[in-house]
Known about the structure:
The chain is about 55% helix and about 10% strand.
Amino acid sequence: MATYWFRPKRYGYGVTPVTWQGWSMTIATAIVVGVSSALVPIFAASEPWIFVAIPIDLLLIFALTVVSRSKTDGEWRWRWGK
């Protein structure tokens, strides 16, 4: 039996974390994206930090999407509720 970390949302498109693994991955991604985005103005004058932060953010969001699609109980599609 597979353990699903996410379940489809009742309304709209996307998924919601339902286990601690799903929540920890979602929160960790949000923290890293937030920190790297907050560091852009600080390091922008001395280094091309924006060219490092944007690929990191995109890579993390892509990884979260891939893992959440593979760990979802059901398919991703638009839902109107029950």
